[in-house]
Every structure is written in structure tokens, then in C-alpha cells.
Specification:
9 strands, about 20% helix, two-stranded antiparallel ribbon, Rossmann fold, elongated
């Protein structure tokens, strides 16, 4: 895996990297930039180009996420509709009728081994990434909720800070839709465990 490394001798503590970090894993401690939560670092390095002294670099690490136990029986997808991306799904569609709607950060399907069985089967699933898509999904989700008879909403997100955008978008969309629906928020750890919900 790749993560960033901060050279303390070169760091001036200017804080530009803190502002650039989408994962909120860098902070200033004792006048120097520090990697506060290495496990949440995505390794993309948005902090690197803003560092005026070149104190931040990417480096490989031995940290590994333990593999999921292998399943001897392959299974088919439980997906009920297509497309699944928030950006691509239509505002109105027959599959939304009386749907239990799941809005998920797209990383969740890869982090949680039983994602299809628990969160996709008998549900309508919409996925997106507020960090990579760099858009506010709330307007489109609000239109979907407003124009369709949705029964319930379930939000699945990782516990990393950027995933909070999914929850925020769903809550704002629900408010803007003028409807009242039951909403469940489920957070997953980067190790693939449910940490609440």
C-alpha cells in the first residue's frame, strides 16, 4: 500500500497540507505537520503539491488489510436495477416504486464482504463518491425522493471523513423533497466491519 510521509526537518508548519487533505488525516502538532490517522490516508497525495518545502512524499508501507475468508460457493449479483451510479440514474423509474432505497459510498461494496447479501438484495441501490465526483448529490436525490414513492432510505458509508458527504446529501435531499421517510445510517470501518447501525 502507499501512504504519505512527512519529513519533520523540512516542515515549516504552514498548514497548507492540512487544508488540502480530503481525508482530514493531517494536523499541526508542536508546530509541525503530522499524519494523525495513517490508516485513513488514501495515498493519493493531494497534500504533496501544496507543500512549499517538499516535506511530503509518497512511500510504500507494509500495512496490509487482512483478506476476507474465501467463500467456496460463488454467488450471483443481487442488484435489482441498472444504472446504479447517482450521476447516471434517471429521476423517475419503475424500480423506484415502493423502493427501499440504499444510497452508498461506492467504496463500501469493496470494504464489506457481505455487502450484496445485506445491502443490495431486495433493495434499490445508488452509489457515489462525494470526493471523486466532486458534486453535491442532494439536488438529484431530492428530485428522486420527491417524484417517486420511496418507502425507506438507508445510507451506507465508510467512517472516513470524505464519506460524510453521502450522509449530508441524503439528509439535505430528504429535507428538500418535503417528504418524511425512515432513514438508517450505517458506517463501516476500513477493516470492513460495521461500526454503527
Amino acid at each position: 500500500m502507499v501512504h504519505i510521509s512527512i519529513n519533520e526537518d523540512r516542515c515549516t508548519g504552514c498548514g497548507l497540507c492540512v487544508e488540502a487533505c480530503h481525508e482530514a488525516v493531517i494536523g499541526i502538532r508542536d508546530g509541525k505537520a503530522r499524519l494523525l490517522q495513517e490508516a485513513y490516508c488514501d495515498g493519493l497525495g493531494s497534500c504533496i503539491p501544496v507543500c512549499p518545502t517538499g516535506a511530503i512524499i509518497k512511500e510504500a508501507t507494509d500495512r496490509q488489510i487482512p483478506p476476507e475468508p474465501s467463500s467456496p460457493i460463488p454467488f450471483a449479483s443481487n442488484r435489482a436495477q441498472w444504472p446504479v451510479q447517482i450521476k447516471l440514474v434517471p429521476l423517475q423509474a419503475p424500480f423506484f416504486e415502493q423502493a427501499n432505497l440504499v444510497v452508498s459510498a461506492d467504496c463500501c461494496a469493496y470494504a464489506y464482504g457481505n455487502f450484496h447479501q445485506e445491502f443490495v438484495k431486495n433493495q434499490i441501490i445508488l452509489i457515489g463518491c462525494p470526493k471523486l465526483d466532486a458534486i453535491d448529490y442532494s439536488e438529484k436525490l431530492g428530485e428522486i425522493i420527491h417524484h417517486n414513492r420511496i418507502k425507506s432510505l438507508r445510507v451506507i458509508q465508510m467512517e472516513v471523513p470524505c464519506c460524510g458527504g453521502i450522509e449530508h446529501a441524503v439528509c439535505k435531499a430528504l429535507k428538500n423533497s418535503g417528504k418524511i421517510l425512515p432513514v438508517t445510517i450505517i458506517k463501516l470501518s476500513i477493516e470492513g466491519k460495521i461500526v454503527n447501525g
